[in-house]
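Example record for the data management plan.
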Amino acid sequence: MSDIQALYQLYLANPTISTDTRNISNDCLFFALKGDHFNANTFAEKALENGAAYAVIDEEAYKVDERCILVDDVLTTLQELAKHHRKQLKIPVIGLTGSNGKTTTKELIKAVLAQKYSVFATHGNLNNHIGVPLSVLSISLDTQIAVIEMGANHQQEIAFLCTIAQPTHGLITNVGMAHLDGFGGFEGVKKGKSELYTYIKSTGGTAFINRNNHHLMEMSTSANLRKVIYYGTNKEDDLYGELVKADPYVSFNWSAGQYTYLTQVNLTGAYNFENSLAAVCIGVYFDVSPLRIIKGLTEYYPNNNRSQLTKTERNTLICDFYNANPSSMSAAINNLGALVAANKTAILGDMFELGEEASAQHELIIQIAATAEIDQLIFIGTNFYAYKDRYAGLFFNTAIEAAVFVKTMPLNDHLILLKGSRGMALEQLMPLL
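Corresponding structural encoding:
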């Protein structure tokens, strides 16, 4: 069976999708995806044994019975099925991308919109060529608004993901020094992210734009967007706000109309002001009342190691180690430097996917950290370690080596920033802090 309409009927009867035999639910559809080091066709029979209603495969050798649906390519079929499902949904879909703050902003938008609507938002960071179709296929027919996060590490990726998510509204949080290797430098990042604006323009959609970000303003002008809602710190913006404080939590005023509202979110870092303001802007646009917007924001608590303040028996931790790039790293360092605390320590791990810029960007981060008001600097990873003889601070090749040091020289009564790329596994240090 290769007909998407026929497959869609099976999906409607069995609307749960699985790509992992370890997470099979009864009567789901199992899609046997392939990767560089695995071939899920080999698990099709097991998926059926575990309760899957059907298994979608692309190798005939693994067709055990009529419940195996043979297609030319499983991934392409998954994407096409998602496109077909999306076309049936006559709802607003907010497409969201950016170098930093995507997931946090998505969660804040969801928290606000959920005060009035039945909302679907991307789970975790399922935001790539597999995650986006899985997200779209998770949108139930009674959903009123969806928020789809889209990530990219090379050009034309956002453009492709837009053909699946088909957003009616778009938001780029920012553009920064992320995935430089795949994008070919910062200008490549801007070009890649602006593909969302290009799609929104082509379909007559609406974009939400932070007027304070000159890169986004430049990109939106180049895209010749027609329908734009501005938010920022200028009183002429459609949604105006100003940061009140960020020590440790972010508090800000915002105005939409004649009234001004004070709101605090359970996030640390002044950079989360603009993420919160974006959520307020979208809430106002979709007619969520001010009091419900405030309720949604104040009741959101991060639990994903993104700008998450955690108190242990001995220290206060700023857990922000889900990912890192030079833009988010410098923002986190500057935030720590601005906070008031008797003792401040920054534990910084290597940043990945920087290509030829890796060495220079790691040195720049060391220099930024050296000028911040931080008492102790700990750098972890081979990129940072290369500078151990040139700069002050403690340098370790791995988190395990750093853990040995922390065990022998424990930290007490410190405000500690943990920031690094996911692959650095800085969570290994948490039990010691």
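Summary line stored alongside the record: Residues 74-88 form the longest helix (15 residues).
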